[in-house]
Amino acid sequence: LVGSLTIGTTFFLSPVAGILTDKIGIQMTTFIGGALAFGGMLLSSIFSTR
């Protein structure tokens, strides 16, 4: 289930990444993606289940 969600999200958001790359450039798109990934990792480390 986790693998299929990862692949599905990648394919679903590819057009968005392409549009962003055309509009603002690959460096800014990569920076935004890294910031989102960092934020997600940070939130998942703070809100752990016990």
Radius of gyration: 13 Å
| Proportion of residues in extended strands | under 5%
How does the overall form come out from the CA principal axes?
flat
Please provide the count of β strands.
Answer: 0
User: How much helical structure, as a percent, in the residues?
Assistant: over 70%
Integer count of domains: 1
What are the secondary-structure elements, in order, as H or E? HH
Q: Unreliable runs, pLDDT <50, ≥5 residues?
A: none
| Structural class by secondary-structure content | mainly alpha
Largest sheet: none
Distance between the ends? 22 Å
Protein name: Major facilitator superfamily (MFS) profile domain-containing protein
Transmembrane segments: 28-47
Keywords: Membrane, Transmembrane, Transmembrane helix
Brief rundown of the structure:
The protein has 50 residues and is mainly alpha-helical.
Comma- or semicolon-separated keywords:
single chain, 50 residues, mainly alpha, 0% strand
Care to describe what's here?
With 50 residues, the chain is an all-alpha fold. The chain has one domain (2-46). 88% of the residues lie in helices and 0% in strands. The chain has two helices and no strands. The chain has helices at residues 2-24, 26-46. α1 (2-24) runs antiparallel to α2 (26-46). It is flat.
